[in-house]
Amino acid sequence: MALAEGLWTFEGIPAHPLLVHAVVVLLPLAAVCGALIAIRPAWRRRYGVPVALLTVVAVAAVPVTQKAGEQLEAKLAALDNPLIARHAALGETLLPYAVVFGVLVLALVAVGLLSDRPGQASHSAASASTRRPWRLLSGVLAVLVVLSGAATVTQVVRIGHSGSTAVWQGVGTQ
Predict the structure, then answer these.
(1) Closest CA to 1 of 67, 60, 91, 94
(2) Measured between alpha carbons, how far is 101 from 26 in angstroms, rounded to an integer?
(3) Residue 133 and residue 41: Cα distance in Å, rounded?
(4) N or C: which end of the chain has fewer CB within 10 A?
């Protein structure tokens, strides 16, 4: 990636339309995987760490893509296009959604590991009672992961639709 007159580019193409695909693919994929490990604790034990890593990468892609988008918006400022302005305004809203979702996935995986860990005597009543609060918390986190994942994907779709409308509005109508 190169910096051309204040704009990140790749082979002469502005980086934003390229980077946006990381967000559009990885965040919904992380949301689906997050929902799956939230719903199936056995999958969380097996796939929790990879899902957490995927989520971290997806969330990290958001501010990089936003920065490239701000650069592109500045380059296109002379167009004075309200559709670009709307897309930019919506794009600024994604990071809080993504961060909340990411933190919840990480918490679910961590709490899930604590709730599933074997105790000193794994079948004893004392061991089961010490895991019960962790299991309750993992259940609450599971619901929050599913809800925040759905909200994040909804926001990705809204932002993506506004961006594609800004680019393609009027194309092919002549």
Answers:
(1) 67
(2) 13
(3) 15
(4) C
The one-letter amino acid at 140: V
d(CA 29, CA 96): 18
The CA radius of gyration of the chain, in Å to the nearest whole number, is: 21
Reading the block at residue 99, the tokens are: 């961060």
β-pairing, 2-4 vs 7-10, is antiparallel
Angle at 122 between CA 117 and CA 123, to 5 degrees: 140
Q: 13 pairs with which residues across the strands?
A: 10
Give, rounded to a whole angstrom, the gap between the first and last alpha carbons of the chain: 35
Q: What is the pLDDT along the chain (174 residues), one digit of tens a residue?
A: 666 678 999 998 999 999 999 999 999 999 999 999 999 999 999 999 999 999 999 999 999 999 999 999 999 888 888 999 999 999 999 999 999 999 999 999 999 888 876 654 455 555 566 667 888 999 999 999 999 999 999 999 999 999 999 988 866 555
